[in-house]
Structure to design on (327 residues):
């Protein structure tokens, strides 16, 4: 049995201990065995939630929520692919549900602490002022309504649900492709419990998006410009994003990045993975030099002015009748 320090006082100390003392995960994955079927779980410290243990063992500095969704799906498919694995994925789903609860609690605090940013108020006043615009919100919170309700004059769809909502509960899972979905459908219901294509049918949000985009170009007199704010465009949202990016009405995809070329490039790469059409993708995505950083709450006066100039330039050069925002 591995020994454990008498006290682990910080998250960094826990990560360091795990890195030095745990080797079972790599062995299990090489054998194509689910983490839940592994015999290499720690005795000290003991994890009540094996999925959280898995996340800690795979921890990367810039973990995003879509990475957590991807880890869940990998584990689910290991259950599916291993015929000798008699474990039912219910325990995985229960652990994942616990992670969703922590996510909801975290977002409630973030929602309460959110502050209005003048640059976004200007953005919404300029571009979110009619039914020709749709705000498609992926982040589960009501921050937009709380802070900018007097500015926004366009429809807003919480495509992934809202925290503490019974009618529109949060959708946190994975956008499995048709082939993988078909495999999982052959199993019991636990296998499709967190697959997004099935969860979307709980509300009419997906229908609202489709109606906005239109079934064909004849429904729109102008093209659609997609503005991306704070969405990594990870594969865990592949289903909805593929439908949007590859829609025939899309005119351009504008990435508002966080500070650097590296952040822009990561989103651009994910869009290429989703669209699977390099020529069309390259033509649609606005290049880095003609894109703009995302406004932050602590921007100085010059940064605020530069963002306002950029939005005015968009309105002058590319008249936008329909713009889709990812928040």
């Amino acid at each position: 049995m591995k020994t454990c320090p008498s006290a682990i006082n910080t998250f960094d100390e826990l990560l360091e201990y795990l890195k030095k003392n745990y080797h079972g995960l790599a062995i299990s994955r090489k054998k194509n065995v689910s983490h839940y079927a592994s015999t290499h779980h720690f005795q000290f410290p003991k994890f009540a939630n094996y999925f959280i243990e898995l996340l800690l063992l795979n921890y990367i500095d810039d973990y995003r929520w879509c990475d957590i969704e991807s880890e869940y799906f990998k584990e689910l498919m290991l259950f599916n692919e291993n015929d000798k694995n008699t474990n039912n994925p219910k325990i995985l789903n229960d652990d994942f549900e616990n992670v969703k609860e922590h996510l909801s609690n975290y977002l409630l605090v973030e929602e309460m602490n959110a502050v209005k940013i003048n640059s976004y108020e200007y953005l919404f006043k300029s571009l979110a002022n009619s039914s020709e615009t749709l705000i498609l919100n992926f982040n589960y919170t009501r921050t937009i309504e709380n802070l900018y309700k007097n500015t926004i004059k366009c429809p807003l769809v919480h495509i992934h649900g809202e925290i503490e909502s019974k009618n529109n509960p949060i959708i946190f899972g994975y956008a499995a492709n048709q082939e993988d979905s078909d495999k999982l459908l052959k199993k019991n219901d636990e296998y499709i419990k967190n697959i997004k294509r099935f969860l979307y049918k709980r509300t009419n949000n997906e229908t609202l998006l489709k109606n906005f985009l239109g079934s064909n170009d004849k429904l729109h007199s102008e093209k659609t410009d997609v503005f991306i704010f704070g969405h990594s465009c990870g594969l865990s949202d592949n289903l909805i994003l593929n439908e949007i990016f590859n829609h025939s009405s899309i005119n351009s995809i504008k990435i508002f990045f966080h500070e650097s070329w590296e952040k822009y490039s990561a989103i651009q790469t994910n869009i290429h993975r989703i669209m699977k059409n390099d020529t069309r993708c390259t033509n649609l995505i606005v290049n880095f030099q003609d894109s703009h950083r995302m406004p932050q709450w602590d921007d100085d006066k010059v940064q605020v002015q530069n963002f306002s100039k950029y939005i005015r330039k968009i309105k002058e050069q590319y008249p936008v009748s329909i713009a889709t925002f990812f928040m």
Notes: Residues 117-168+203-326 form a domain with the Rossmann fold fold (CATH 3.40.50). The radius of gyration is 22 Å. The longest helix spans residues 90-113. The CA atoms of residues 32 and 81 lie 8 Å apart.
